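To: structure desk
From: M.T.
Subject: fold request, one chain
Message: Could you run this one when you get a chance? Sequence is below, nothing fancy, just the single chain.
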Amino acid sequence: YQRRVHGETMSLASPTGSEVTSFSLDHTGLYALVSYRDSSIRLWDLRTCRLLQQKYKGHKNTSKHFIRSCFGPKSNLICGGSEDGGVYLWCRTGNLVNKLTGHQQGPTYDVKWCPSTQNMASGGEDGTVRIWGCISVDNVTN
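Reply: Done. Structure tokens follow.
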């Protein structure tokens, strides 16, 4: 993925050369969360164009599907879908916090966070959109 910053092009390519499946900015606009088809989600610092050490693991994103991820509340939580049908939640430092199940078959393609309601929604191949109510992030630390 490339974007223009102050008239210059910045590349957020995967270290493995894998295809990008989603891109999300945090609430400050200073960090980018990029999902790649090698089953990795990586955090980039847009001020320095550097890949941070955090790599969010556990989910699957390797085949023909476009599995997406996003920042959660206050950008302290990372949310992502998976080919195994789960919804994965990581703290920003990379530790897996929870794996939610609810999609009955096939991948979970997309996950979105709603800051005003503290809910999360996910959509999957099973034809459903799941609303995950009031996810508490009080115990999630950077």
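Reply (cont.): Residues 83 and 107 are 4 Å apart (CA to CA). Let me know if you need anything else for the meeting.
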